[in-house]
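Progress against Task 2.4 (sequence-to-structure conversion) is shown through the following example record, which the project officer requested during the mid-term review.
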Amino acid sequence: LLAEMRADGYRAEASALSPDGIVAAGAGNLAHSAWYRDGRLSVQDESSMLVVEALRPEPGMRVLDCCAAPGGKSTHIAERMGDMGEVTANDVHAHKVALIEEQSARLGLTSLRVMNVDAAELGQALPPASFDAVLLDAPCTGFGVIRRKPDIKWAKREEDVAAIAALQERLLMEAARMVRPGGRLVYSTCTVEPEENGDAVRRFLER
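Structure tokens generated for the chain above:
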């Protein structure tokens, strides 16, 4: 794919951060390309790809993505597993679950299934300690993506940080219940707030 993109005149390079990534400068919206339509590529930030590196999925695993929409990480996990095993992609919003299904179909994945439940109530829908790896890409204030979403600076208030941190704590405790003994739990956000990151992890470990 990298060779094809270069042959078509794109300034494309292999990602220095993810073995699965290609960085194409000035390429426009590649979601309109035939490569995208045919399932040859997906569009995702390198930082998002690093989350899957941390999860380290392997063929045959059972993996849960707790807050999965729109599905970029879930499908990346399934691809990294060679589409062998089981990836459960959950989201609380039904219309966003449909987006995950669309991405899975576009990529021809058979190992990915979707769920539509509140991630704070996963224990009511799934057996505990039943996954080899669990990803909680938690809802957050989003300050880490302010470059792409500059309206955040007007839409968020200081009290939002405390409220979202409390939600993250609930979700993290529930996600942890899903991990089998010896399994892996990855917690990620796209914010820079300590209360939502390092502090959240410390509170979880204390409990």
